[in-house]
Every structure is written in C-alpha cells, then in structure tokens.
Amino acid sequence: MSQTNGAVDTWEMVVVHKAFRREFGRVAGLIRQVADGDRRRAEIVADHIAFLTDGLHHHHTAEDEVLWPMLLDRVGELDGELVHRMETQHETVGTLIARANELLPRWRARADKTTGEELANVFEKMSVALNEHLTDEETEILPLCSKYLTQAEWESLGKRGQEGLPKGAKAFVALGGILEDATPQERTRFLAGIPLPARVLWRVVGKGIYRRELARVQG
User: Which fold is adopted by the domain 11-164?
Assistant: First the structure.
C-alpha cells in the first residue's frame, strides 16, 4: 500500500458533478412537459437525454477502468469497501441508463404520455441514485484520491474521461454545462486547463452555441 504526499487537488471533479446533478435533476420535468403526440418536441428532448446519458456513461467508464483499480491496489480493507460501494452504485445507475435506453426510442417516435411517464420515473430514480453516488464520491473517495494518487495519475484519469467528450459544437454544449454552476474561480481554473485555441473559440462562438442549445432544450 503506497501513499503520496497528498498534493493532488481534485476540485475539477466536483465542478463536473455539479453539472450532472443539475441536468439529471431536470430530465423528468422536461419529459413530462412534452405534449402527448408532440414528436418534434420529443425529438429535441430525446437528443438531449442521449447526450447526457452518453456523457455520464463515459465518465463512469473512466472511473471503472482507471480510478477504482488504482485505489483498490493501494488502500486498506476498510477503504476498499468504499471503492466497492462506488462500483455497486455505478451498476445501479448503469441499470437505470439501460432501461432508459430501451424506452427512449419508443418515446422519441411516438411522444406518448404512457411511455413518457415511465421514462420520467426512470430518470427520477436515476437522479436520486446519482446524487447519492456523487455525494459519497466527493466525501469519501476524493480524499483517498488526494492521499493515494500522484498528480500524473489523477491527470491520466482526466485524459481518459476526455476521450469520451463530444466533438464539434457539442463540445461547447458540454463545456457550457460544466461551467454553468461553477464559481467564478472554478470557471477561471477550468478554462485555464483547456488549450488556448479552444478557449478563444469558446469566447467567440462557444458561449452562443451553448446558450442557443440551452434555449432549444428548455423550450
């Protein structure tokens, strides 16, 4: 069991978590606001839902493949149980995502209230399970990351997660979502970690892309 000097700062994970909490907390309401048979509106909301679930899936996959193995190799038995609890919580959320993915094509095609209500119920459960997981991760796991991981290892997790980020205009939608609830200091630090050309594009066109997509989704 090895231990680092505790210098790893995991602040950016909390910023990303804010976006997941907010967005998944909104989904059930977005679904229920779609009028019965309004397939045009259902298409917009369904696209947004797929965007969110894909993002969460990639985020969790990076943790499953990179973070949990590193921690289990270093922490003691008691803390190892915490890591296993994180894995179980991922499975719970993953099962709900799978069910949502089964319902989403049907609702997208029909925009029927029955399927929509079932889908909304799935996302209500997912929001509760996800909030529990994110809280446990922030209070129990991130301190272990700071203690047992090196800065290079923490950055490798970030790079693994970035592989699943969308490209093109959707990248600005993802970035805008992350920055939405960030504090001014967090926003400055987060943007500082992005290559200069991307930062310039964010200021010139990215903010507008995000705001237009936000308006489109919220209707």
Answer: Four Helix Bundle (Hemerythrin (Met), subunit A) (1.20.120)
